[in-house]
Amino acid sequence: MGKGGQDVGKSGKVGLESEENRDVFPAWSKDVKECEAKYEVDVQQGLPAAEVEKRLQIHGHNELEKHEGTSIWELIVEQFKDTLVRILLAAAVISFVLAWYDGKEGGEMEITAFVEPLVIFLILIVNAIVGIWQESNAEKALEALKEIQSEHAAVIRDGKKISSLPAKELVPGDIVELRVGDKVPADMRVVSLVSSTFRVEQGSLTGESEAVSKTVKPVAEHTDIQGKKCMVFAGTTVVNGNCMCLVTGTGMNTEIGKVHSQIHEASQHEEDTPLKKKLNEFGEALTMIIGVICALVWLINVKYFLTWEYVDGWPRNFKFSFEKCTYYFEIAVALAVAAIPEGLPAVITTCLALGTRKMAQKNALVRKLPSVETLGCTTVICSDKTGTLTTNQMAVSKLVAMGSRAGNLRSFDVEGTTYNPFDGKIEDWPVGRMDANLQMIAKVAAICNDAGVEQSGQHYVSTGMPTEAALKVLVEKMGFPGIVNHDASSLSSETLRCSGLWNKMEQRIATLEFDRDRKSMGVIVNSSSGRKVLLVKGAVENVLERSTHIQLLDGSTVELDQYSRDHILQSLHDMSTTALRCLGFAYKEDLPEFDTYNGDEDHPAHQLLLNPSNYSSIESKLVFVGLVGLRDPPRKEVPQAIEDCRAAGIRVMVITGDNKNTAEAICREIGVFGQYDDISLRSFTGRDFMDHPNRKEVLRQSGGLLFSRAEPRHKQEIVRLLKEEGEVVAMTGDGVNDAPALKLADIGVAMGIAGTEVAKEASDMVLADDNFSTIVAAVGEGRSIYNNMKAFIRYMISSNMGEVASIFLTAALGIPEGMIPVQLLWVNLVTDGPPATALGFNPADKDIMKKPPRRSNDSLITPWILFRYLVIGLYVGVATVGVFVIWYTHSSFMGIDLSGDGHTLVTYSQLASWDRCDSWKNFTVTPFTAGAQTFNFDSNPCDYFRSGKIKASTLSLSVLVSIEMFNSLNALSEDGSLLTMPPWVNPFLLLAMAVSFALHFLILYVPILAQIFGIVPLSLNEWLLVVAVAFPVILIDEVLKFVGRCTSQSRHSRSTSSKQKSE
């Protein structure tokens, strides 16, 4: 809103009403004189300049408000509200401080000490950048809305016409002239028609499938937006005629302004996706678990850094070791690093990105990554009708011609749903043998027509009125006398060849324009017979009323008797009840006034054509030849898609701005309703629904629902109520009127071809082919992606639980730390990453669209799955700690010789009390080898438990990596055995395992990397030990899966039997 916009509603001046007062004065229900009086303006003179300035101060400029976006600082803070991110941030800060402290205290200030905090900081920074980028795109819909506003207007002020006034300077009361092609600059009341007809394309705002004829006559006060025939709305386009209008609303007080407010309001209430909510819940639970385990680790090890003596029964002489305290604090930090799957955000983003590529191949273009997953739990699809369920291309579906005698009619079904002339044919058509009656119908349809059809890429588009374009397509399907092979190859050079031939044969010399009174259009042509002929098309009842004869099959004419008239009207009734829009065709050969007329303006007949009131008399005594039924037909693939939705447990609701009868007919045809269903409680207009005493009860009904004549606020209310009921809502739309609901829905789906930029920017996904069935395919893909995400979340979390168990057991047993934080970070980020990502390529279940959708509050991890995680995690902990202990205490294990490196064996009790090594007498350690290195401990044998643990630590790390690779095979299926779902069903997983092992070998056998990670190369025997300890994780999970399958079948059979008993 421009200057003074905030003062709207604060003035009490007559004619300068506030939002409330403007609602009290409905201009559409008042005649022109009342409107002039209210707005204190003369239609002929317009507003004086001084009054314009006053109104501009009060109402502000005619432009939409500029809402302040979220500041960059607020966006940054928003990224760190996630629980997992906060834990990571705390762990990174503490790691950094401890590394710095160790260096200051005389330790080695090595880069390895800072690798862990720096890597975590890097992860957090990248995560924040991605989040900020996504958030900053959120308000693009409001900017796109401003693009559809008109920039200039032709205005009358002070009795003079200003042909190009900046539209933002318009004020209520201004008089504006509108012409063909103009974009309406404000909401206005039509005060006079300059042309006989005036039509506006307002479908993007109201959802209507055809251009609307406007009138000067007032309508009822409580009429919905579609019924306001005397109003034109900002952002719509004039397609026919010109008129004078009075501005009634500007800026935010227009219908498009209301949409702007609704989009802004909807953007303020955007919710997290179901997966993000579950991950947040998981993060909070993880925080508690980490806190408890860290506290336990400290309590178990408090004896190592805090000792005291009892004197007289009371603790005295406390001794505190700060060095050991910080050591165990580092273990707690390592525990936090181990517990958090740092790679999870990256893997989820990668999986979603891969999902967007798959969906793009199916013509679904995803604009916001999280919406890929949300699609998988969609429970309700609220679909627009026009352009989504239907083609948004008018097509003739029935042709009725005259028979061989009076009262005898012939009916032909016409195939095809698009403007493609080669899409379908006419059933039972006499190809190459068109009789005189059919030729006359083709002639009228081709010549009494101002539209055209052009090929645009792979699609055919109309120019002019859609109904007329459909008639041109019908003419091509009818063919031309003498042309038999009418196909795409023979006529590829010219889309409308037959229409062109008719127009060459019959030269058009005059046009009797359509008007709303006679409801017909006529053209006068120079016939090939040398006579002047009038060809007429229009509303069947009107054309029939002015007809006196009918043309029979052979071209002869007979008088139109009551019997024939009744037959024609019955045919019209039958077609109308199936929501077909009908047009009648007629001609007249007796035109004595025009016998010598050739278009010359000086000819006396030309004067007749200048006055539209003469058209009815010229179009009298017609010969009726036939009629056609047109409609915006449903897409061929939609009925199957609706059936797929039903099988998948997804309800389909149709919400359209179109006529109720038309919408109900389409819904019956595509399967939303059955052919004979009673739909009185399932089909509502938007107003009826809003007035219903129990709207939620209406929405809870099973099966499909229809809401016709719906306005933007109705769509928003339906979406809001569904979300309150716990439904996950996907909303489709293409118009400006759909944008608020698209923004509010869990998944906003816009049309790529017919959709406005406003709708696209407000959406989460764009359909490249505008096809409803693409949404259904995308839902299936979303379900598959969610299942795969569950697989890698299952994999990563079970792996992390193993790391936690490892660190906890290390602390509980009091043995040296097996793995350092930087090693755990490497495993979580790099080694686990490829297999987790590869699990995103798991093939979809064949019955994925036969199962009901998961509820958005379904648990990500069931109690049974959690138990499995704990069992697997415990084994990982035992295996990694066990192999560490084995190396120190055994020279061989399971027949594998481990003495080749010459390391010294110790007892378990020595290993568990390694921190008291300084007090041991005669403790010596022999040197041992690792690769090309030799480790010698002559100066301090106790270093054998510090720097000397490098080989045991390497074994622990290698066992952890190997177990996690084998565990990724377990994650292929939640309950399916590897025998039924072998590893090669997902070759990407095998490749990923190879990559992860290769990365592990890289850090083992490249000296500089081995030094950074504090590890050494392993021998062949040591690798055999690693595999022997790691492989049982597959066997353990196979047993657990078997138990899971048995209990699942038992539960299923019990529920089935109880259901049967109840029946």
TrEMBL record:
Belongs to the cation transport ATPase (P-type) (TC 3.A.3) family. Type IIA subfamily. PANTHER family: CALCIUM-TRANSPORTING ATPASE (PTHR42861). The keyword Ribonucleoprotein does not apply. It is found in: Membrane. GO terms for molecular function: ATP binding; ATP hydrolysis activity; metal ion binding; P-type calcium transporter activity. SMART domains: Cation_ATPase_N (SM00831). InterPro entries: ATPase_P-typ_cation-transptr_C, ATPase_P-typ_cation-transptr_N, ATPase_P-typ_cyto_dom_N, ATPase_P-typ_P_site, ATPase_P-typ_TM_dom_sf, ATPase_P-typ_transduc_dom_A_sf, ATPase_P-type_domA, HAD-like_sf. GO terms for cellular component: membrane. Residues 26-100 form the Cation-transporting P-type ATPase N-terminal domain. Its EC number is 7.2.2.10. It is a multi-pass membrane protein. Pfam families: Cation_ATPase (PF13246), Cation_ATPase_C (PF00689), Cation_ATPase_N (PF00690), E1-E2_ATPase (PF00122), Hydrolase_3 (PF08282). Keywords: ATP-binding, Calcium, Calcium transport, Ion transport, Magnesium, Membrane, Metal-binding, Nucleotide-binding, Translocase, Transmembrane, Transmembrane helix, Transport. The keyword Magnesium applies. The chain crosses the membrane at residues 83-101, 113-133, 285-306, 326-354, 792-815, 866-888, 988-1017, 1023-1044. This is P-type Ca(2+) transporter. It is an enzyme of class 7 (translocase). It comes from Linum trigynum. Its main location: membrane.
